[in-house]
Amino acid sequence: MVRRLCSICFCLAMVSSSICTAESLSAAQSTSSGPDPAARVSPAPALRLSLEEAIGLFLRQNLDLLIAKYGIDLSKGQQITARLFPNPVASMGLVSAPGQGRTLESSGQVFPQIQQLFELAGKRGYRIESAEYGLQSAEAAFEDAVRQLSFAVKDAYYRVQLARRRLALAEENRDRFSRILEVNTIRFKKGFIAEVDLIRIRLQFIDFHSQVILAIQEAQSARSDLRQLLRVSPASEMELTTELNYKRWDPDIVKLRAVAIDRRPDVRTKRMTLSQRAAELKLAKAYRVPDVTVGAGYATQGPHGPDNPNQMAFSLGVPLPLFNRNQGGIMQAEAAMQVAGADLDKTLNQVENQVDVAYRNLIESRRLVEAFLEGVLDDARSTIAIVERAYERGGVTLLDLLDAARTSRTIQQNYIEALFNYQRNVIQLESAVGQDIAS
Hints:
Blueprint: H1 2-30, E1 47-49, H2 51-61, H3 63-83, E2 89-95, H4 104-107, E3 109-118, H5 123-189, H6 195-230, E4 238-240, H7 253-263, H8 265-286, E5 292-301, E6 310-317, H9 327-392, H10 398-433
Parallel strand pairs: 1-4
Antiparallel strand pairs: 2-3, 3-5, 5-6
């Protein structure tokens, strides 16, 4: 049995040594931007970003926002096209009466003419109205893209801070048990504690050490997500200055519902789309009225023509709406308007529910955070220190110490998670409303 315990101790020591070596290598690699630090001329300066600065950098550089912005330019082009008049049509006619001894020059007629289409029933005005609503819809869609992606940036930002808090807690627990392990290794050599107790301490130290490594990996992953949103190079170090701290918010749910329904960008997009479909319906009905084509020309005849060699000509063309009165176009426009109306109602219902759910989640997460701050968190922090001192004096057993360490770690981790969830619910409510809840 003793031999088996010694073997276990040796394996744990090897694992601990390998983990420490891996950590030192990881720390060495994280301080350099390449495999050969000596090859670097100078390290890149760290990018210090508050949450507001991160949002500003995101608005300048994010590719998804640039793609959404191009939709506004597309709608502006459609608006310009809607304002244009139809181009006039220039035509040249040539008439000849060939016969014996006659040529095209002596008996022909040259008839140049210009025709212009005039749209009736306000078609051009309806097109302009539809294009203007389309532009407003595109601008609102861009604002909605900013709303949704800004939530992603804030969420990624606070995930980095969450990972930092987890890492700090894991390092604190690891360092505490590193000291306990050193002291008890000496006590074991002097015969004051059993070997099984030393193994238990080693196992707990390895557990805390593995949590440090997992927290480092989580922090690296969160930073990578934030870098991609901000279009920041992986070689750039980021230093985030806005901490994950508690700040109580008590928003007015009635006011938030009204603001969301009135101002949220996706709701405005649906309203503009409905107005655009209404303008398109009016345009489709206007196409029942035929347009008029007016033409004017001047005819010049050869020497063998009639007595009037030079003649003025005017023409008026009106399609006869006997068969096609745009029945299908009107039906399609009516259906499109009904679809837009149903889509607006669906969006309004979703917005009301999103605001309500986000508000309730915020209130419940706030209660949980405040419950930790009422003394539970301080008790968890002080308990492990008290039990550790009692264990050193022989007042409690090793199992009591390990239980206190796990309980303290669990409480503090739960508080960090609750704090992050509260902050996330705050920005979820802001996203549901479409503006900062503090304003």
